[in-house]
Design a protein that fits this description.
The structure holds 2 protein chains of 2 kinds. By secondary structure, chain A is mainly alpha-helical. Chain A is built from 1 helix and no strands. Chain A is rod-shaped and about 55 Å long. The model of chain A has no long low-confidence stretch (mean pLDDT about 85). Chain B is mainly alpha-helical. Helices cover about 80% and strands about 0% of the residues of chain B. Chain B is built from 18 helices and no strands. In chain B, helix 2 crosses helix 7, helix 2 runs antiparallel to helix 8 and helix 7 runs antiparallel to helix 8. The longest helix of chain B has about 35 residues. The two termini of chain B are about 45 Å apart. Classes of the chains: A mainly alpha, B mainly alpha. The interface between A and B is medium-sized, with 20 and 22 residues.
Chain lengths: ~40, ~450
């Protein structure tokens, strides 16, 4: 049973990783830009 | 597709939404100008009222032309047309009067408070009349909103034909104000336009959802004269519009967030918002046009090529794919992460406003707000995909409507945190103003409602 679910589990891990990576990158860049432009 | 009207009816349904729905945005801008006491914004608002007053002419002429063109068409009832015409003439006369008062006010060297308040009062009365005229106008053509045979209630269609004009017409106004603000280099006007972009983006969500429900209300069981293929073409474009609104709304909000910290804008990022807005407006115009064609056969012309195959298109493909477990479960998992981000961020910021962690200034907690906004974007995207898996069922669950209403209220209320001057000046050890605490309570209540409404969907 578990073997049949492996593609779904892998897909969950991939999609969630991509979404979290994008959110992390977006937050990192925004804060970096803000700190650089701060007076 | 022809976007340029080639008949009185087409011109009328296009022009008439500006003095009605557009008046709400003009009034919002004008009220902001009065609150912010910005001379440039007040004068811009007055000029907009003059333009809307002038639009009374094409609105009346096209309405009169449509009435004559469609007099022999059995679909349109003479009584409904004459009711709409009677109220329409009254509303347009009041609109012209508002425009005339604004014209006199704008040419005076010094703006007097009396003149400003007179225009405001006239515009509010005009808006009240426009609400009646608009409703009587929809009823002339949209007889489907009275159908009682459909599995999905017709209230969805009724709300959609009203609501869809808010992000579209509002976006035109936001873009107009934004261009004027860039030209005048007026920061208050830039911020107001950016807030308008964000509000339009947020309103895109209930518009998309009500549109999806309207599709079922008009196709299950099928209604004579309504083509599913044409609806699919409209909702494919609606998907692109949703992305355009998301890009414009998020980049606009980021400018507001950065301005809060830096006290100034950077030209590059303002131009980026402008570019997104122009592209989105183009996509939105095509979406609106295809939406209008669904139930307005009188505006179609012989050269229009209408879709006939209801089994093709982006939305149909998404519906098929998202029904596979391999796609559904990952996006649902992402949706839960999005909720965690939104609620976590809102909870932390709201608790500070309500009086927790007073050792931290409001400016410090304001820095974490982008996490919540990213959560909203994640969930609009994943939620839209999940919805397509079984939209007919989801939309008819009793907790879906409150969920969507709470999303709209919660997202708009969060804007307050990035625009309030009083809240921004709350330093470490200081208490937030009572108005901010009420907004914080509203934000928490709304997002709690969203999470609960979503979780209850499959069970009640």
């Amino acid at each position: 049973m578990i073997y049949g679910n492996i593609p779904v589990i892998l897909m969950v891990i991939s999609v969630v990783s991509c979404a979290l990576a994008l959110i992390f990158l977006g937050t990192y860049c925004l804060n970096k830009i803000l700190d650089r432009s701060a007076p | 597709m022809h976007l340029i009207p080639q008949s009185w009816s087409h011109l009328h349904i296009l022009v008439s939404v500006f003095p009605s729905v557009g008046l709400i945005f003009a009034l919002g801008f004008y009220a902001t100008a009065i609150i912010a006491n910005s001379e440039a914004m007040k004068r811009t608002g007055l000029v907009v009222f003059v333009i809307l007053g002038l639009l009374a002419i094409p609105t009346y002429l096209s309405g009169d032309g449509s009435a004559q063109d469609l007099a022999q068409n059995p679909k349109f009832t003479e009584d409904l047309v004459s009711d709409h015409l009677g109220w329409g003439v009254t509303a347009l006369a009041m609109l012209a009067l508002t425009g005339f008062a604004a014209l006199i006010a704008v040419f005076r060297r010094r703006l007097s408070d009396n003149a400003i308040h007179l225009v405001l009062g006239l515009a509010i009365v005009t808006l009240g009349l426009m609400v009646v005229v608009g409703e009587l106008g929809w009823e002339i053509n949209h007889t489907e909103i009275k159908l009682a045979t459909q599995k999905t209630p017709q209230v969805w269609s009724h709300v959609h034909i009203i609501l869809n004009h808010f992000p579209t017409v509002g976006f035109v106004f936001a873009l107009g104000f934004y261009i004027v603000a860039l030209g005048l280099k007026n920061d208050v006007m830039k911020r107001t336009s950016l807030v308008l972009f964000v509000i339009c983006a947020i309103l895109g969500v209930p518009t998309f959802v009500t549109g999806n429900a309207s599709m079922w209300a008009l196709t299950d069981p099928p209604v004579r004269g309504i083509s599913k293929a044409m609806i699919n073409a409209h909702r494919d474009w609606a998907l692109y519009t949703l992305f355009g609104l998301a890009f414009t709304g998020v980049t606009a909000w980021i400018q507001l967030w950065r301005f809060r910290h830096l006290g100034r804008f950077t030209n590059g990022s303002l131009v980026l918002v402008l570019a997104f807005a122009i592209v989105t407006l183009g996509v939105m115009a095509e979406t609106g046009h295809r939406g209008g064609q669904i139930n307005h056969p009188e505006i179609r012309v012989a050269t229009d090529v209408q879709p006939t195959d209801a089994t093709t298109g982006l939305s149909v493909t998404v519906e098929k794919e998202i029904n596979q477990v391999i796609w559904f479960v990952p996006w649902q998992t992402v949706h839960f992460f999005g909720f965690a981000l939104i609620f976590g961020t809102a909870f932390a910021v709201c608790l500070r406003v309500l009086g927790f962690w007073k050792s931290v200034s409001f400016a410090s907690v304001h820095r974490i707000l982008p996490l919540g906004v990213f959560g909203v974007v994640t969930n609009v995207f994943s939620g839209m995909l999940i919805l397509q898996a079984d939209s007919s069922r989801y939309l008819n669950e009793i907790t879906f409507v409150p969920k969507v209403i709470f999303i709209t209220i919660g997202a708009i209320a969060v804007l307050y945190f990035s625009v309030s001057e009083r809240l921004w000046s709350v330093k470490a050890g200081e208490d937030a103003p009572i108005s901010a605490k009420w907004v914080a309570a509203l934000v928490l209540l709304s997002w709690t409602g969203v999470v609960m409404g979503g979780r209850l969907l499959p069970y009640v």
